Amino acid sequence: MTPATGSTMNPGTRRRLADRRAAANLRQRTHQIEVDGTRIAWTERGQGEDLVLLHGIGDSRRTWRCVAPVLATRYRVLMPDLPGHGMSGRPDAPYTLTWFAAVISDWMAAIGVRHAHLVGHSFGGGVAQWLVLDHRTRVDRLALIAAGGLGPEVGLGLRLAALPFTELLYSPAAMWFGTLLSLLLSPDSFGNPTLPEIGRRARENGIRGTGRAFSRTIRGVVNVFGQVVQTREGVGAVTSLPPVALYWGADDPVIPVKHGRLALGLFPGATLEVFPGCGHYPHLQQPEKVAAKVLEFLGDPQRAPVRLDPAARAAIALIPAVAEILPALERGGHGSAG
Predict the structure, then answer these.
(1) Contacts (Cβ under 8 Å, ≥6 apart) of 329
(2) Is residue 336 domain-resident?
(3) N or C terminus: which one in the chain shows less Cβ crowding within 10 Å?
(4) What are the DSSP calls for 224-256, one per residue?
């Protein structure tokens, strides 16, 4: 029997083969270094200007497996596992955005990266924004995919995970089983990972110390009512901002796309791309389109930095009020970005 190839290969088989190729490529150039007493594991590929990709809570650098090969055709792509995740260390640390940003900044310095373009997904988008706030010279351009920190709403699961004393429940076995169960029962919510990817993520989340890191990371940005740390609270004090582009799944159940629309007011001059049919992981659900849009943004010589003039700084204070009336405006038929 001749192996299925080309147009005769079904989508499931094609995706499994793509995942295997991506896994092989990511394994080839994986590195580790000690930074601020914490082991940071990362993978890199490609050559050119430095491009750092930051993943979200409970995830790892492997979330970039489908877009990294395309991005690496033009850039040196660096994909760290955030502390508490993947193969990086799990120190007894605060796991706040300020702490994550400091560790990533020091990691960049330790490997000789003075500055880079940043792409952040979900919580990784929050870390990327905090790098802008606290370590501005590290960031050239900022691409945010379904990023946290741009509005109060967040999925019920994360709000429940932020309840007091939940850290006591996150044993290695519970983290392994919870990850496995979540990804098997609701694969659409996690970008439809393959079975090998589900197993790998469950094993990594079952490493001792992951539960403590998971709990502290969530409680650092979320409570039972929603997100409690907002970029708007610090962005007015930044003297300059990089060019910014936002990317969102139209059907994101974790962080709603309206946060991207509100962010256009926070970052005057930013752009928003909305991907129909996608949830919280557009870079896994429509990787070709997302990678193409990110490359377009990074390579656009006309893309200007976001500028906050006095009127824009004053408008930032009005963003919470706009958030309250936006749903009513949308129901009334007003247009929206994307």
Answers:
(1) none
(2) no
(3) N
(4) TTEE---THHHHTT-S----EEEEEETT-SSS-
Give me the mean pLDDT over the 239-256 stretch. Answer: 96
Is residue 251 exposed (0-12), middle (13-18) or buried (19+ Cβ within 10 Å)?
A: middle
CA distance 332 to 17: 46
Helix (H) or strand (E) holding 197: helix 195-205
Torsion angle, alpha carbons of 335, 336, 337, 338, to 10: -90
What are the φ and ψ backbone dihedral angles of 306, each rounded to 5 degrees? -65, 135
Residue 168 corresponds to which tokens in the numbers above?
């006591």
pTM (two decimals): 0.84
Give the list of residues 6+ apart from residue 188 with CB closer than 8 angstroms, or none. Answer: 279
Q: How many domains does the chain have?
A: 1
pLDDT tier at 309 (50, 70, 90 boundaries)?
low
Is residue 266 one of the residues assigned to a domain?
yes
Q: Which helix (H) or strand (E) holds 272?
A: strand 271-275
The domain that holds 159 is classified in CATH as: 3.40.50.1820
